[in-house]
# Entry
Amino acid sequence: MVKKELEPFREMLLSKRKTVLESIQHIEKDTLNKSQREASGDLSGYSYHMADMATDNFDTEFTLNLASVEQRALYEIDEALKRIEEGTYGDCQSCGKKISPQRLKAVPHTLYCVTCQEKEEKRSKEKG
# Structure
C-alpha cells in the first residue's frame, strides 16, 4: 500500500488505541486500585459474609480478565502500527497475499486474510 492509502488505517488504529487505553485506565481506576471493602461500599469494621467475599472475588477476576483482553487489543494495535511503519501492513502473515481493504476496515489490526483467519480458527478449535 502507498502512504496515502495507509493514512486512514493509521488514524483508525490510533483512535482505537486511544479508546482501549481509556478503557484500561478506567478499569484500573475504578476497580484495581480499590480494596474489596471500598469497591463494595462497606467501610464498616464488620467482616464480610463468605458469599459477599466470593462475589467480590468473582468481580475482581472478571475485571482482570477484561483488562487482559484490553491489553491484548492494545498490543495488536501497536503491532499493526509498527507494520505500517515497516511497510508490511495489509500483508497476510500466513500466505503473504494482500488483505482486502474491507477486512482491514472491519479489523484494522488483523494479521490474516479471511481464508487464513478461518484456517487459524479451525486449528485453534482442533487444539482446544
Summary: Helices lie at 3-32, 36-40, 50-86, 101-106, 114-127. Residues 91 and 98 are 5 Å apart (CA to CA). The chain has five helices and no strands.
